[in-house]
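Students often ask why we bother encoding 3D structure as a string. The short answer is that it lets us treat folding as translation between two languages. Here is a chain of 465 residues written in the first language.
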Amino acid sequence: MIAYIINGKSFGNCVDYVTRRALEEQLNKEQSHHHKTAERKYEPAKRLAGEHEAHIGTAGARWQSHHDSPQPNNGEDIIEHLSKDWHLLCATSDIRIYEGRKAMAEDIARPTKTRKPIKDPVGHISLDFHPKDKPRMTDEVMAEIAQDYMKQMGLTNTPFVVVRHYDKEHPHCHIIFSRVDYDGKILTQTTNFKKNERVCKALNRKYQLMQGKSKLNTDVSKLRGKEKVRYQLVQDIAKLFIHPSVKDWNSYLDILRQHGITVKEKVGKSGRMNLYYCVGKHEFWYRKLNPYLSRENLEKVFRARSGKQKGTSQVVKKTVSQKPVMTTLSDAPKPKPQSKSVVIPPLPDGFMGARIAPHDLDRYQKGEAVCAYICKPDEIVGKHHWIWYDFKTGQPQCETTPPPADRYIPEDFERQMTASKGTSDNLTQGAGITLSYPAIGSAHIQDEGFTNGAAIPDDFKLWLS
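And here it is in the second language, the structure alphabet:
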């Protein structure tokens, strides 16, 4: 499941959209046209029955005229509607769902009248589920998940409706609510995108739902407009990035330019340099594509690549230049006793639902304690927790208080960390990124190229996700 936070300005327009007002009016018009066509077809029979129709009273004539004309979709038509593309799942008890769209919009907007206007008073969130979850995604289950999502996001004490749509292959529903609660307080959680991501992951675990796909695995043929361009651009950059000719920043820009992608650097309001990827008439800030597509991160990867290639060539050269030397067993130097290598395994994926930055994960594997914000499934507001590796139990520890200063750390591990500070490997570890790249002499990758869709390594997908 993935939640898209939209927000908006007009309650009426939002209610009209989720209840398919335009489609309902079109169906009403077609139904009315069908009635009129049938009347013209049987007009001769009506003239023969003229005497009988003359006895119909004035009230009956008014009812007949009202029945034949297209009617606005008010009252119970909201529930007993013509379209099969939507269905009202649930709503708060103070919303007049049987009195039409206008009454629904007014009831949802009522709390906003108790204070001065805000910029985007309409809360609009779309919950999209994976197609594989469709068989068990009943109306009851979807309504339960939608209300659980609002509770964990802190979107309580406010009027809302949940409407399910059937116009796409994957199950999804829309939540409309007031961003001002009954007490006149603004619900700021609709701008907290990090919490939205944590809540979605927690609900996926709780209800055993499929996780959302990476941009690299998204079928762009099902997208439209700017979203299609954005997802396609991420996939194109991923394929071009692993090309053998990409060795530094300039060669990276060259291969992008050859495929119609340009890169611009602009100074933002804060004075920081921002990177933009441009294709056609569209321009995307690198964070809208992927946070790791900044120049700083990419140049770290290029330096790590260069260091690996240089290290490989030096080893080969040394091996070739060495001459075989005959030694006896007594002449051979005795091996020095080596200290036992101690390695801290990486944290499990999604450990405790925490969102941990790559550099903090690297610090964790160096034996340090890192601080992370965790919101448990049964909590609305999360807390900061300390996460560190316990060498005695061999398991990661997570507590709301820092670890004791005298916690046990093996001497061999401390010597490893001290010795590794001056090595060249520290550059790759500091970047927090490890990427596979094809060998320069790999003709298979060169022949395949970008046009035919070169394979993307799994660790590169993990780096982008």
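Translate back mentally: The longest strand covers residues 383-390. Keep this in mind for the problem set.
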